[in-house]
Amino acid sequence: MSQEQSGAPRHLILHRRYFSHGVFGVLCDEYGNDICKTIERPWKDNQPGISCVPAGEYDLIPHQSPKFGNVYALDAEQNGVTVFGPSQRTHILMHVANRVDQLEGCIAVGMEFGVLKNKHNQNVWAVLDSRTAFDQLMTFLGGQPARLIIKEA
To answer: Where is the DUF5675 domain positioned along the sequence (predicted)?
Structure first.
């Protein structure tokens, strides 16, 4: 019986690599198959708005964002992250974006890694085709809660 048939939540694993200019990852399903690439802000001690979230386990919860529409929110009180608080960080979402400077602590998804111009017309590392990757992730999760494990690659 598959996880979808048994009602058990999907498990995703995000394998991250940390750099001073951002955190880049590969999001995989429970069997190790690549789903998409990810980009986040660099690690800054879990500071709101400027840091990626800590490695660890999170619940992925379907969420309606006023800015991004239907997305998934991360929730793990033990990591200082909840959807609505009280906690160190709230509203950490997986949503469409391409560059680190478009994020405030959230996780953006893309089909591939690449280079784009930032708001200062400088070349920066990015994820490409974010909308396609996001749509595929949303279809994969089917609007159901899931479990996300974030770890260093």
So the answer is: 14-140
Q: Kindly state whether residue 78 falls inside one of the protein's structural domains.
A: no
Judge contact between 39 and 52, C-beta under 8 A.
no
- What does the pLDDT look like over 7-32, one tens digit per residue? 788 999 999 999 999 999 999 999 99
Separation of alpha carbons 39 and 52, rounded Å:
9
Range of the domain at 29: 9-59+96-152
In tens, the pLDDT along 100-118 reads 999 999 999 999 999 999 9
Could you tell me the CA-to-CA distances from 94 to 7, 24, 60, 107, 143 in Å, in that order? 23, 14, 9, 5, 13
pLDDT band at 6 (very low <50, low <70, confident <90, very high): low
Number of domains in the chain: 1
Give yes or no for a contact between 152 and 55, defined as CB atoms under 8 angstroms apart: yes
Helix (H) or strand (E) holding 62: strand 56-65
